[in-house]
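pasting input
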Amino acid sequence: TTHPDELAGLTGLLSDQERAIAESVRALTAREVEPHVAGWFERGEIDDPRGLMRKLGALGLLGMHLDGYGCAGTTATEYGVACLELEACDSGLRSMVSVQGSLAMYAIWKWASEEEKQRWLPGMAAGELIGCFGLTEPDHGSDPAHMRTRARRDGGDWIIDGRKMWITNGSLADVAVIWAQTDEGVRGFAVPTDAAGFAANTIEHKMSLRASVTSELVLDGVRVPDSAAFPEVRGLRGPLSCLSEARYGIVWGAMGAARTALECAQRYAVEREQFGRPIGGFQLTQQKLADMTLEYTKGVLLAVHLGRLKDAGTLRPEQVSLGKLNNVREAIDICRTARTILGANGISLEYPVIRHANNLESVLTYEGTVEMHTLILGVKLTGQSAFQ
Ligand code: FAD
């Protein structure tokens, strides 16, 4: 049998350095995560998440495409390749890295004062300190402009009150990037999670991204000095700049989940026999595998294309929307089709397929839902906003 990557010659698209990064991430996930991740998913709990974060940091994967402050300073395409390999293991693992690097670290790297960058970034790059990113609230998800969390000045300090919901790494975090309404518009704050009045409650009963910590954050009169406020940025431009970074990683990551499901279904189709022959010999199964391979190939091509644009400095947010919308939608479809090829085994955690399919339900929703990205493309294509 031919591997889908080989069939389309996809590995030839990558440089030696990009391939080397893919291999080192694959070695880490195979050693540290793969043997345990189905168990973590089943229990809804990661063993030693701080230890795992330090291992990810030691390999240079945290804030890896940022410069300075102990970050690896790789290209965007190299970062994308790493996201693909992390998500080939589990979307929760890629989320852990995305939130740390592309949301929390990027926000501080891009918008915080020099003093705050020095305070947080080197420890975060090493995985010694964990960050989270609080934008979503219980009543405001797709429409963050109407968020209720509020920061008001009190002498030289700020007092923050509000609630954030569905926050990845929330209960693990040492620092929370919190976006809040102020008299000057939405502003960002780097809030130490040991500040009085700050609490994080882990969200239970998720059926998706179970090998990932998701939390509610409660800010009850949390006092931070003015230096914690991001000095320059006002309005949604701040959080949206960070989301664009994380969404870019998802364009790649989703294809990792798809690849794992596709590989599993291909292997299963060759080995499993019914009616006296391998199920891969039936045309209906071949059609599924061919269609999955087509969409996987197109998704990887799109990711590489967007990676090259990002490295050239010309990638636009709507192009990231195009990639996020397509690749997550197709990845979940690939996983669901793989599930059917595995029959009853497809629903078991003995195989990675249902775990990936369920994880992608979250990926479909977070970082802008399918519908939001469709509307972003709609505005560009028609000049008409259908958001309101
Ligand atoms: P809503 O905004 O209430 O949307 C519900 C439905 O209505 C969706 O289908 C949506 O597309 C649709 N809809 C809304 N408005 C329109 C419209 N104008 N036109 C058409 N359809 C519309 N957030 C963070 O800030 N930080 C995190 O770290 C984080 N991690 C997450 C981890 C997980 C596992 C999950 C599930 C979510 C996470 N989120 C995080 C939150 C996520 O970003 C939001 O769930 C997402 O933005 C959608 O918001 P919502 O759930 O409130 O849905």
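fyi The pocket of flavin-adenine dinucleotide is lined by residues 99, 133-136, 141-142, 166-168, 209, 214, 362, 365-366, 369, 371-372, 387 (CB under 6 Å).
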